[in-house]
Design a protein that fits this description.
Largest sheet: none
Helix content: over 70%
Structural class: mainly alpha
CATH architecture of one domain: Orthogonal Bundle
Strand content: under 5%
Length: 311
């Protein structure tokens, strides 16, 4: 049950072009981690959409002063960062679609995704679409959140992901309000949390809605047609690539054959030239020998003539 960029945009309208960036990565990742039912997909997309500001932020925002909370103190210790003020908090800030945070989480994620500790050396990998999505699904899977989604425990999922701080704090403020606290003050304080919860609720509704819709006959027919078109396009592309490769190979083979023919001809010409030169030399040597013998014969005749005159 893949989801399209357009459907993601309907669920997370502020994501804009980022839906195109993440659609493929999300589909591959959700398939790998069996986030493949309407409730699982709805919950997962809602959470990663919320945690990433609707796909706009794959790195936690904030300057050094804000990120110092991860560098020293109890939170740093809980995340596995060094207790010294050495920048570990800034280095291992939240990254990816679900904001993997802290040394220990980076290490566990790295071992799961890569089989080594490379994320400790290059945490920026989680800012890439593929690993941003896979790190989120790894976290999801490590907390067994598919089971929570199957049970429709969406509030429980939120608590597992961000500790439920916003949920608990908002609930506490509402309780103070019920006890007669100043209404305007309370509303101003809880408004950001209400907005955050509304975003999650809206994303859940949108994700569930589209998860349901894609299973009806109309959507299934459209998806089948799209899959058929995609398959046909892939076949045509593969055929074109094979034809291009064959043409290229034929061109290479022809060049090799032409080269071999030229080299063979040059070799034969050189051999013929050497043979011709050898023949000329042989003839010259023979002629010189004839001249030499002729000179000797002339000398002999001269000697005979001298002897005849002496008699």
């Amino acid at each position: 049950m893949p989801i399209t960029a357009q459907q993601l945009l309907q669920i997370l309208p502020n994501a804009g072009k980022q839906t195109g960036v993440f659609a493929s990565a999300l589909n591959l990742t959700m398939d790998r981690y069996q986030i493949n039912t309407r409730f699982r997909m709805a919950a997962f997309i809602a959470q990663v959409g919320h945690e990433s500001g609707q796909f706009r932020y794959v790195k936690e925002l904030g300057g050094d002063q804000y990120l110092n909370k991860y560098d020293t103190g109890s939170l740093a210790k809980r995340l596995g960062n060094t207790p010294e003020a050495d920048g570990a908090g800034q280095k291992y800030r939240g990254r990816g679609l679900i904001q993997i945070t802290g040394h220990d989480n980076y290490l566990a994620c790295s071992r799961a995704l890569f089989g080594d500790d490379r994320l400790l050396r290059t945490p920026e990998l989680l800012e890439l679409a593929e690993w941003a999505a896979k790190s989120a699904a790894w976290f999801w899977n490590s907390r067994n959140l598919n089971a929570s989604a199957d049970a429709k425990d969406f509030n429980g999922i939120t608590r597992r992901i961000n500790g439920g701080q916003r949920v608990r704090r908002a609930a506490g403020l509402l309780q103070h309000c019920a006890e007669g606290a100043d209404m305007n003050s309370i509303l101003l304080r809880i408004l950001p949390y209400i907005a955050a919860l509304a975003l999650v609720a809206g994303a859940l509704f949108g994700g569930y809605h589209h998860g349901v819709m894609v299973t009806d006959e109309k959507w299934q027919s459209a998806w089948n047609a799209r899959d058929t078109r995609d398959a046909e396009a892939r076949v045509l592309n593969e055929a074109a690539e094979r034809a291009q490769e064959q043409a290229c190979q034929q061109s290479i083979n022809k060049a090799v054959q032409d080269g071999q023919r030229i080299i063979d001809q040059a070799t034969a010409d050189a051999a013929a030239a050497r043979a011709s030169a050898g023949g000329v030399q042989f003839a010259a040597d023979n002629l010189a020998d004839v001249f030499k013998r002729a000179d000797q014969r002339v000398g002999d005749l001269a000697a005979i003539a001298d002897q005849a005159r002496a008699r």
